[in-house]
Each structure stands twice: as structure tokens, then as C-alpha cells.
Amino acid sequence: MKPKILITRAIFPEVVERLQAHAEVEANQDDILFDPAEMARRLADKDGVLVVASRIDAVALGQATRLRVVSNMAVGYNNLDIEAMTRAHILATNTPDVLNETTADLGWVLMMAAARRITESEHWLRAGHWKQWGYELFAGTDIYGATLGIVGMGRIGQAIARRARGFGMRVIYHNRSQVSPEIERELNAEFVDKTTLMKQADHVMLVVPYSAATHHIIGAAELALMKPSATLTNIARGGIVDETALIAALREHRIAAAGLDVFEGEPKFNPAFLELSNVVLTPHIGSASLPTRRAMAHLAVDNLLAGLGLGPQAGNPPNPINPEVLGASRG
Rounded CA gap, 34 and 200, in Å? Predict the structure, then answer.
């Protein structure tokens, strides 16, 4: 008998077809947002789930006695209750690496747009205010030759640092642990403590994973260390930054600008951001190129099928989050 799989949100039709070759698939192509109770009902008879921009918590797992694999179509997994899954011997997987370059591109887009006041100047132009040139008209800050401070030097952080070489930037970084000397030489990057980074960087880029330890690691104290001409870009997770403190810093021009792709409680976000002209806002589109999203979806399928013992990688999923459950049976 084929295993039963739930796909939680709309996805590429070819991904649905690929799974249908191996399993009975309930595909949410109408893109309905399931609340925890509905998610629990849908998972009750499923062996696997392909998670697309959805939360799988202890409530959702409550009735899922058959569930063996939760395959998350994302690199971050703060939307999954990993502890609950591990206790229940449910394998969780994610999709790292395939989105590194696309997400790094978006980080640079936001940083450059914030530094050069692109959103602010475009809105001003569209409103019909452009009557003449002025020497200070939307003058921003430079990228070339500036100091880039990267908080988080994982795969995406390293991709961001590689791009900085073409802009003649000095790269400093802060990370949970220092990367190897070989990587530092390749990236021409210098390890510093967080205080030094916040003080010296002309542009701060956040690329750390979200956890209890990284919640609000950028707050009022850290923002107070930044140069008035500096920018802050967040492509990590919303909870990394204390948004109330950031809004105050932007409103009072204690930092020059910010570029934000992620927010606490998204898709809801603090409406005070909309009142600010010196912030560039995007709706969590870091990995949003069609080739990358397809690669993420197919890697999620690889993980799901392998976790269920199907396909060429049966029993050996490429990206386990909790590999200690591999080989363990539920019960």
C-alpha cells in the first residue's frame, strides 16, 4: 500500500506529480491556510508531510500517529517543533545550500537599496515631486570601499562575503564560532566581537538562524553602537531584531536606513514600518527566484521520499535535522 502524504500549501504541479508516482497525495493547491486544529486533522492519517510555509507544532502532531517524515521546504526550521518530532521518532528535514546564492543576492539588493535610498526616492518621484536637481537630492551612503559587517558566517553569510570582494569592501564578521583560516583568507574576512562589528560596520547584514539564543540579539544597545550613517539589513528571521528598538532608531535617524525581508509574526508586521521613509521592505522573498524555489521543492521531495524508504536515496535523506531518529520506529 502506498504511503499517504500531505502537501500543506500550493506548490509546482510537477512536484505534486512526482510525489503521486510514489504515494497517495493530498495536495493543498487551493492554498488554504490550515489552523493547528485543521492541520492536526489533515495529518491524522498521513505517513509524510511536505511543509510549505506552514507551522507544524505539538498540536498539529497530536493525532499524527502514522507520521514518519516532516520535510520542510526551507533552510530555517523555527516553524517546526523539532523536540516534539524527535520524541515521537519523526524525522524532520530541510533544504539548505540550494538557496544560498539567491538569498545572498536579495541581501545585497536590500543593502544597496537602503544605502542609496532607492525606495524613498522612487516613491517621491512617482508622487510627482521631481522638479529640479539638487546636490543633496537623496544622497545616501557608499557601498564600494565601505566596511561590511556580517552577523552569521554560515553558507549564506559566506556567499554575501564573496560578493563584497567585487566592491572593494572590508569584511568583518561575528559568528558563534570562528570559521577556518582558509575560509577567512578566501573571503578576506576578519573575525570580531559583536560590539566591534556594530561600531565599525558601515553596513550590517544579519544572516543567523533563529533560536532562543538569537532572539533579539540586535536590540537598542546594539543599535546605539552603530554609526548614524550605517544601514542594517535582515534576511535571517524577524525575531533576530527587536523591531520596536529598530523603528525608534530609524525614526530618530540614529541609523541611516534598514532593509528588511523578515518580520516577527509575519505575515503580520509592525505597521509603524510603513510610516518610515528610510526602510526598504520585502515580504520574505529571500529565496524567491523560480529556479531556486524549484530546486528547494525537489530537494524537499528527495528528503521526504528517502525518509519514507522510497526512491534512489531510500533510508538516506540528504538533509536530516534530527538524524538520531533515523532507523527508529514509532510506537
Answer: 45
The domain limits of the chain are 4-96+290-325, 100-281
Predicted model pTM: 0.92
Per-residue pLDDT of 137-181, as tens digits, reads: 999 999 999 999 999 999 999 999 999 999 999 999 999 999 999
| C-alpha cell of residue 31 | 492554498
> What residues contact residue 133 under an 8 Å CB cut-off, 6+ apart?
none
Residue 123's pLDDT band (boundaries 50, 70, 90)?
Answer: very high
DSSP-based helix, strand, coil % in the chain, nearest 5: 40, 15, 45
Separation CA 237–CA 208 (nearest Å): 8
Active-site residue set: 237, 266, 284
How far, in Å, CA of 281 to CA of 101, rounded? 20
**Fold equal for 4-96+290-325 and 100-281:** yes
Grid cell 524577524 — which residue? 238
The string of pLDDT tens digits covering residues 102-114 is 999 999 999 999 9
CATH says 4-96+290-325 is which class?
alpha beta
Amino acid at 3: P
Dihedral sign for Cα 253, 254, 255, 258, please.
negative
Architecture of domain 100-281: 3-Layer(aba) Sandwich (3.40)
pLDDT of residue 1: 87
DSSP string, 260-288: ES--TTTTS--GGGGG-SSEEE-SS-TT-
What does the pLDDT look like over 5-23, one tens digit per residue? 999 999 999 999 999 999 9
